[in-house]
Write a structure and sequence with these properties.
Helices cover about 55% and strands about 0% of the residues. By secondary structure, it is mostly helical. It has one domain. Helix 2 packs across helix 3. The relative contact order is 0.23.
C-alpha cells in the first residue's frame, strides 16, 4: 500500500491527530531500530523503520494512546 494511503488509514484510527501519529511512528520506528521485531505478516526486508511502524499502526497492530 502506498505511504499516502497508509497515512490516511492510520490518521483515521487516531482521530486525525497528526501529532499523535508522528510521535507514535517515531517511537515505534526507534523500537524497531533497536531490535524489536516487526508485527507485520509480510517480509519487511528493505523497508524503512518508519514505513514498518506506519503500516503496523494502519493495520491496528499497535495500540496508540495519549498515555504512551
Amino acid at each position: 500500500m502506498r505511504t499516502e494511503k497508509l497515512t490516511a488509514v492510520a490518521l483515521e484510527k487516531l482521530d486525525f491527530d497528526k501529532y499523535l501519529l508522528a510521535n507514535a511512528v517515531g517511537k515505534r520506528a526507534e523500537a524497531i531500530a533497536n531490535g524489536e521485531a516487526s508485527l507485520l505478516d509480510i517480509d519487511t526486508h528493505g523497508m524503512k523503520y518508519t514505513e514498518i511502524a506506519l503500516q503496523e499502526i494502519a493495520e491496528g497492530k499497535i495500540l496508540v494512546s495519549l498515555e504512551d
